[in-house]
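User: I'm putting together notes for a lab meeting next week and I want to include a structural view of one of the chains we've been expressing. I don't have a solved structure, so I'd like a prediction I can at least talk through. The sequence is below, exactly as it appears in our construct file.
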Amino acid sequence: MEYVYAALLLHSAGKDVNEDGIKKVVEASGVAADEVRIKALVAALEGVDIATVLSQAAAVTSSRRSSSRCSFLRQGRGKGRRDGRE
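Assistant: Thanks for the context. Below is the predicted structure for the 86-residue chain, given as structure tokens.
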């Protein structure tokens, strides 16, 4: 998981998500870098627009929260006190 976090950190910093960058971030965190995992992650991310994927994930998460809240209200809970009790 630390390799994915490293890739996200590089992306959010506006840096290229590449093997060298991921290795440096992972090693800076005190973890021994596994070259095979790094290569596999970089290969899997080839051609992926990380910004688009993140925005789509945020939209799905947001719609699920909204849907859950509506379901909660339809069931008659959520009235009065915040804990759902009258």
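A couple of points you could mention at the meeting. The helical segments are 2-12, 19-28, 35-45, 50-74. The radius of gyration is 20 Å.

User: Perfect, that's what I needed.
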